[in-house]
Automatic annotation (TrEMBL):
Gene source species: Cohaesibacter celericrescens
Source organism, top-level taxon: Bacteria
Catalyzed reactions: 4-CDP-2-C-methyl-D-erythritol 2-phosphate = 2-C-methyl-D-erythritol 2,4-cyclic diphosphate + CMP; 2-C-methyl-D-erythritol 4-phosphate + CTP + H(+) = 4-CDP-2-C-methyl-D-erythritol + diphosphate
Record gene name: ispDF
Residue positions binding a divalent metal cation: 257, 259, 291
Source organism phylogeny: Bacteria, Pseudomonadati, Pseudomonadota, Alphaproteobacteria, Hyphomicrobiales
Domain 2-C-methyl-D-erythritol 2,4-cyclodiphosphate synthase: 251-403
Protein name, UniProt field: Bifunctional enzyme IspD/IspF
Pfam short name (any one): YgbB
């Protein structure tokens, strides 16, 4: 019995993006490997799986190639060449993407197929084995775990109506496993009849008249939905790789930046625009706050400064939004499997008034750096009318940051 796997990776993963540059969660690195790479790796090394098709968004082709490169070039290269098919372009919905994957397998002699979300990298060989065994007796199977939390039904206003009996409730996971011909026909008919509101493939199977059999899942087979999930996954993988205290190398960094005023009507500080009778002069957008933070992060990891990576002599950076510089510094921390523990920014100026804009600055910085707002401090002070800031000729900024990296011998 030939069993194929369809890995659905065509979504945008908005809620779980840890960067602001539109990289979907399936391409975010976890302990050095992309989420998608880790997911595919389990299927690749499973004896239960014979072929693998990954469904991706067309614009993510380069991201996909980079994500699977470790599989094609490492110790699993031979298995990857044998099992991993060319990626397939997905549709506008998950349901449409699954059908694209099924069509890609149409000419193969496939008996059964498992459909799995790319954002579940902790799928185990044991679950895959249980799915394949279950398909000997059932044509539609759903991996699921019993609901353990108390479930309440509430009104739209938030008033509890009743407590639901959870004894017969199950939380669906993936993979979902099917006889290939059955689920291909079911998906095809659903598309032809414009039945496009199904939330998973088991629902398509139910609509097509099949009895769906539950296969025991695993509570650790979580779907990565938000940033916190990614952080927990990072910690778990670091722990599994043998480090009981994975981020024990604590680094401190400081940054300082100055920009003069120029004719204008607004300044950009801390990632937000503040109306003012002047602007800040600089090669980029002159965001003095983000520049100081960027240099603090780069200093903590001993990786130069803004000028090293984005020289002002290079015309391509003229007028660039400074969040690009900070995102790059954050990326460099991620590539070292590290995390930003906190950021402390102090702005020194007579005007404009920083206080009213502090919450927005904290949120903008937190979003760019992919950390909680509770880890970002923004303060403001004056120089008591002394020096260039006291004369209202410009703004200075000082930043400090704490970075945690995996401990290792230099």
């Amino acid at each position: 019995m030939t069993c194929a796997a369809i890995i659905v990776a065509a979504g945008s993963g908005v809620r779980a993006r840890r960067t602001s540059d539109a990289v979907a969660k399936q391409y975010v690195p976890l302990a050095g490997k992309a989420v998608l790479c880790r997911t595919i790796e389990t299927f690749l090394t499973s004896d239960a799986i014979d072929l693998i098709v990954t469904v991706i968004a067309q614009e993510d082709l380069d991201l996909y190639k980079n994500a699977v490169a470790p599989l094609l070039q490492g110790k699993l290269a031979e298995q990857a060449q044998k099992k991993l098919r060319t990626s397939v372009r997905g549709g506008t919905t998950r349901q449409a993407s699954v059908l694209c994957g099924l069509r890609a397998l149409e000419k193969d002699s496939i008996d059964t197929v498992l459909v799995h979300d790319a954002a579940r990298p902790f799928i185990s060989h044991a679950i895959l084995d249980r799915c394949r065994i279950a398909l000997h007796s059932h044509k539609a199977c759903l991996v699921a775990v019993p609901v353990t939390d108390t479930i309440k039904q509430a009104t739209p206003e938030g008033r509890i109506q009743k407590t639901i009996d959870r004894s017969s409730l199950w939380a669906a996971q993936t993979p979902q496993a099917f006889a290939f011909d059955f689920i291909y026909d079911a998906h095809t008919r659903a598309a032809q009849q414009c039945a496009e509101t199904f939330t998973d493939d088991a629902a398509v199977a139910e609509w097509a008249g099949a009895e769906v059999h539950i296969v025991e899942g695993d509570p650790t087979n979580i779907k990565l939905t938000n940033r916190e999930d990614l952080d927990m996954a990072d910690a778990r993988l670091n722990s599994l790789q043998g480090s009981t205290s994975p981020l024990t190398d604590v680094r401190m960094g400081t940054g300082y930046d100055v920009h003069a005023f120029d004719a204008g009507d607004a300044v950009i500080i801390g990632g937000i625009q503040i109306p003012h009778d002047k602007k800040l002069k600089g090669h980029s957008d002159a965001d003095v706050g983000l520049h100081a933070i960027t240099d603090a992060i780069l200093g903590a990891i001993a990786d130069g400064d803004i000028g090293t990576h984005f020289p002002p002599s290079d015309p391509q950076w003229k007028g660039t939004a400074s969040d690009l510089f900070l995102k790059d510094a954050v990326r460099r921390v991620r590539e070292r499997n590290g995390k930003i523990s906190n950021i402390d920014l102090t702005l020194i100026c007579e005007a404009p008034k920083i206080g009213p804009h502090r919450p927005a600055m904290r949120q903008a910085i937190a979003d760019i750096c992919e950390i909680s707002i509770n880890r970002v401090s923004v303060k403001a002070t004056t120089s008591e009318r002394l020096g260039f800031t006291g004369r209202k000729e410009g703004i200075a900024a000082m930043a400090s940051t704490c970075i945690q990296l995996p401990d290792r011998e230099d």
